[in-house]
Amino acid sequence: MKKSFLLFFCPASLCAQYVPDDPALHQTIARHDSIFFDAYNHCDAKLAVYSDYYAEDLEFYHDKGGLMQSKKEVVEATKKNICGKVTRHLKPGSIEVYPIKDWGAIEIGMHQFHNKAEPGAVPHDSKFIIFWRNDGEKWKITKVVSLH
């Protein structure tokens, strides 16, 4: 009876725990996510670090803002609209990383954004997808899907 009760309230598709196929890759991408978003959160001082993570052929899909296909445009928009105003906070344990053979990885996760101009606003979880390309020396972000 207990087992069927749990299955009713917790179907496997909703309660399955993510286990990375490649724990070392998961750790690598999580580390780069941390470095990249630390630079995002402190972009007044770390804009070069932030910018360096983006590939020249960047595609940035934002559900509210549309598609941007210019690294320069994304960095300038960040400088204008984010630096000193907005911070990103990763939802702990939400990162999933999937290897892409002979290319890199895809990261999927949840995060929240806090806007200093709206101190009373309640942040909500947002989904993101980042395509990471590894050229053998560096990890670069080639595509971002940002869903709010």
Automatic annotation (TrEMBL):
Gene3D superfamilies: 3.10.450.50. It holds the Pfam family DUF4440. Transmembrane segments: none annotated. It comes from the Bacteria. Residues 29-141 form the DUF4440 domain. This is DUF4440 domain-containing protein. It comes from Flavobacterium caeni.
